[in-house]
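[job 4471] stage=fold_predict status=RUNNING
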Amino acid sequence: MFCPKCNKPIKEESVECPFCGIIIAKYTPAEPFNPGIRTSEPAALETSAKTPYLKISLVVLCVFVGILFLWMTLKPKDVSGLTVISPESNEVTTISCDAKEKCVIVYLAPWCRYCKKALGLINILEEKWADSETIDFIIIIGLDREKNLRNMADKMQGEIYFDPRGNAGRQLGGRGVPHWYVLNSDNKVLKHFGGYYTPVEEHIRRLGL
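[job 4471] inference complete, writing structure tokens
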């Protein structure tokens, strides 16, 4: 190693030159500039160029997910093979709405006070649609013991079925009782809602009939 000032040979580990007395570190030249190392600015430009495409991709993905969710929500639910229990035979049977254009199903539970209040409306609708050539009206009573189901069925007339374990209710979907469903002839749920409305005409309007 040579002193950067007097150019005389000195030891590699020398802090100062024994000949001219300078501090070696002060005279050590800085590392030469290497253009290849300076990549921050081009990298920033590249990242900036990619940002719009990234945002566009995220927007497209969000739109796709939204459309998929909307389609799944609005898609009519198929309830083919709806199994219930016949009160007369006490045997499992399958109900279908393929005999008429529309089918209205009301799901009730004996312990539900709003279901009891809706019995008058249900009897009026049963009488109204009894001879209809386009609408079939079905009453399903569930989520209770057979004795309670039969006690409630005795207060109504028409096409009545039991669903003590709630299997048909889960297949139909929806929460709460009373719950109303409008099906087409392909056994697909077109509309459903909970509760009941008065007068009768308002309830029929809510059903879309």
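[job 4471] summary: The first strand starts at residue 77 and ends at 78.
[job 4471] exit 0
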